[in-house]
Every structure is written in C-alpha cells, then in structure tokens.
Design a protein that fits this description.
The structure is a single chain. The longest helix is centred in the first third of the chain and has 22 residues. This protein has one domain: 3 Solenoid (UDP N-Acetylglucosamine Acyltransferase, domain 1). Helices cover about 20% and strands about 25% of the residues. The protein is built from three helices and 15 strands. The protein is an alpha/beta fold. It starts with 6 loop residues before the first helix and ends with a helix. A hairpin with a 2-residue loop joins strand 14 and strand 15.
Length: about 160
C-alpha cells in the first residue's frame, strides 16, 4: 500500500533547494554596496552585516580587518541648503574615501564617516562615531571617537624571542 505524501511534504520537497540556496547567499555574499565608488577588501577580513555607502568615495579595507555587527561606513554627504528631491540628488564633489589599514578591529554599532583613515592595528570601541583620522596602534572610542590609550603591539618576531612561561 502506497502512502500519499501530504501537502506539507510536497511543499517542503519543492522549497528545500530554494531555502538552502538563499541561506548560502546570505552567508557567503558580500554586503550590499550603495553608490558609485568601489569597495575593496584584503585577505582574511571578517565583515558582519554592515551598511557600506560609496556615494562620494571608495571604501578600502586592508588585510585581517574585523568589522562588527551593524556598522556603517558612509562616504556620502548632502548639501543641506537644498530641500526635497534636490537634496537627495546632490552629493559632495569632494572625494571622501574611507581607508582602514591592516589589522584594524571595529566593534559593533560604529559609524565611520567619509574622509577617514584608521591606522594599522587600531581598535574602535562599540558604538563609536569616527569623524577624523585615527593613528596606528591605539584604542579609540566615543562620540566622536577619541584615542583613549596606545596599544602595545607585539609582532611575531618579538613573540618568538620571548622565553616561554
């Protein structure tokens, strides 16, 4: 005696490949990029659901960069003297690139504004608003982000030369 499949079984069999495909796309595809600029990233970057706007410049990430959840990298700006649709269509003619150098960690819920360079191996604290350049090897946080202290960075050669404890 053959058992007829239920409607739920038929729907599951038909939709399972589509669901797997959509899950794969969500895991492996890059975040949505908005604008005319370009988004370039180095090796071994960890990027978790940011908003990246390249309207007025490029966003360039070095190697080993980690960007936490819900960060915004916004190069665009508007002319606030205009109103309505004119304001939406306007954008700065100034190039406002965001450059994030090797080894930088940007924690969750940060805003990185256009025209900013974050130096090598720096850390940006949660919820920070980066409005100006951050030097290398520092920990910065706040509204706006300010350097709070310098990080002691130990490179691989120093680590190998230190005696094991």
């Amino acid at each position: 005696m053959k058992i007829k499949p239920t409607l739920n079984t038929i729907i599951n069999r038909l939709t399972r490949p589509l669901i797997h495909y959509l899950q794969w796309r969500m895991l492996w595809e890059m975040p949505p990029i908005h604008g005319q600029g370009k988004f370039v990233y180095g090796k071994q970057c960890s990027i978790t659901n940011p908003i990246i706007n390249t309207r007025c410049g490029d966003v360039i990430l070095g190697n080993d960069v980690a960007i936490g959840q819900n960060c915004m990298l916004i190069t665009g700006s508007e002319d606030y003297t205009l109103t309505g649709l004119e304001r939406l269509k306007s954008h700065s003619s100034e190039k406002r690139d965001i450059i994030i150098e090797d080894g930088v960690t940007i924690n969750a819920d940060c805003n990185i504004n256009g025209g900013v360079r974050i130096g090598k191996n720096s850390v940006i604290g949660m919820g920070s608003n980066v409005t100006h350049d951050i030097p290398p090897n520092v920990y910065a946080w706040g509204e706006p982000a300010r350097v709070r202290f310098k990080l002691e960075v130990i490179n691989e050669l120093d680590r190998k030369s230190q005696p094991a404890s």
